C-alpha cells in the first residue's frame, strides 16, 4: 500500500480510539493522554539523545510517573504545573550545558497532557471542549495536507519544513475553522453569533500550525526525518501530535484566564 493509504488508515483508527476514550472521559482519557505524552517524551529524548546524560534519562522516567500520579490524585492545576516546572529545572541543572533541551523536552511532553486532562475534567463541558479542540486541529492537519498537495505554490517556511506551502497553511486554517464552527454549532448548539466562536478556531488553527513548524525545526536541527515509526504513514507520535501540543496548551490557557485553572472547560459555558 502507498504511504497515503497507510496515513489515512492510521489517522482513522487513531481518531476512532481518541473519540471513544474522550467520550468515556475519566481514568480512560487520562491514561490515553498520559501514554501519548510518554511516547512524545521518549521520541524527544531519542531525537535529542546527544543532549541527555544517563542520570537524566533515568530521572525523567521517574518524574513522568510522578506527574501521572499527581493527575490521578486530582490535585489542583496550580500545584501540578508548579511541580512540573520544578522537576524540569532539576533535570536541567544536572547538565547545565544542555539544560535547555532537557527542560523544554520534559515540559513539551507533560504540559499538553495536563492541559487536556483539566480541559476534559467535566462530564459534558469537558467533552465538548476537547472535541472542539480535536476538530480544529484535525481539520487543520487534513486540510493543510491535501490542499497543499493539490495546489502547491510558494513554500511557507523552507528553513523549517521544506514541504509546507502557503496554500496548505491557508487551506488548513479554512478547513480547521469550518470544522470547529460546525462542531460547535451543529453538535453542541453554541451560539454562532458569538464573536468568540468565530475567532477561537482561527487562533487555535494558527497556533497548531506554528507548533507543527516548531517540531519540524527540531527534526531538521538534529537531522531526523521522523520522530519515530510507531504510526504507519505518519512516523511517530510527535509527528502526529505536533499541532495538538500547542493548541491544547493555548486552549487551556484561554480557559484558565476566562474561568479558573482547575475548570478551563467552563469556557464553553460562557459562549
Topology readout:
Elements: H1 3-24, H2 26-47, H3 54-72, H4 77-94, H5 99-119, H6 125-151, E1 155-157, E2 161-165, H7 166-186, H8 195-221, H9 237-258
Antiparallel strand pairs: 1-2
Helix pairs in contact: 1-2, 2-3, 2-5, 3-4, 3-5, 4-5, 5-9, 6-7, 6-8, 6-9, 7-8, 8-9
Give structural notes.
With about 270 residues, the protein is mainly α. The protein has one domain. Helices cover about 75% and strands about 5% of the residues. It contains 9 helices and 2 strands; from the N terminus they run ααααααββααα. The protein has a two-stranded antiparallel ribbon. It is globular and about 50 Å long. The relative contact order is 0.14. It is found in: Cell membrane. GO terms for molecular function: phosphatidate cytidylyltransferase activity. Pfam families: CTP_transf_1.
Structural key phrases:
271 residues; mainly alpha; two-stranded antiparallel ribbon; 2 strands; 73% helix; EC 2.7.7.41; Phosphatidate cytidylyltransferase; phospholipid metabolism
Domains, number: 1
Biggest sheet statistics: 2 strands, antiparallel
Taken in chain order, the helices and strands follow as: HHHHHHEEHHH
Which structural class is indicated by helix and strand composition? mainly alpha
Global mean pLDDT:
90
Number of strands: 2
Weakly predicted, low-confidence segments: none
Measured distance between first and last alpha carbons: 45 Å
Estimated share of beta-strand residues? under 5%
Radius of gyration in whole Å, from Cα?
A: 18 Å
- What percentage of residues falls in helices of 4 or more residues? over 70%
Strand order of the largest sheet: 1-2
| Morphology call | globular
User: What is the number of helices?
Assistant: 9
Organism: Bartonella tribocorum
Membrane topology: Multi-pass membrane protein
Protein name: Phosphatidate cytidylyltransferase
Enzyme class: transferase
